[in-house]
Amino acid sequence: MAEALEREARKLTWSGQAVDIGQIDSELVRLRYQAAGVEAGRELFAIRTSLFNLIVYTSDREAARDAMEVITGMAHHHPSRAIVVIAEPSDGESRIDAELAAHCHVNPGLEQQVCCEELSL
Fold this sequence. Notes:
The protein has helices spanning 2-8, 21-36, 61-74, and strands spanning 10-16, 47-48, 52-58, 80-86, 98-106, 113-120.
C-alpha cells in the first residue's frame, strides 16, 4: 500500500527572496491547485489537511534539511503544516526568503487529493 501512495504523491515547490508574508499564503494556495490540476478557485479539489502545525527553529541550513527530511516522512500518516525558521543573521536589510512545498497525494478511500505544506523561512 505504501508503494501505491508513493506513486500518487506529488511534490510541488516555489521559492522567493525578500517575499511579502501575504505572498506566501497565495503561493501555497496556487501550489495546491496546481497539484490538483485545476485553476485556482475553480474547483474544490485542493484540500489542505493539517492534524497539527509544526514549527522548527534552527540557526543553520543543515539542521533545517534534517528536520524537513523527518517532516516529509510523516506527511502520509500525519498531515501537517510545517514551518522551519532558519535564523540567519544578515549584514544588510532584514528580509524573509521563503521555500515552499506542497506534498499532495490521494489517500485510499478518498476521491480528493490531500496536500500537506512545508515552509522554510
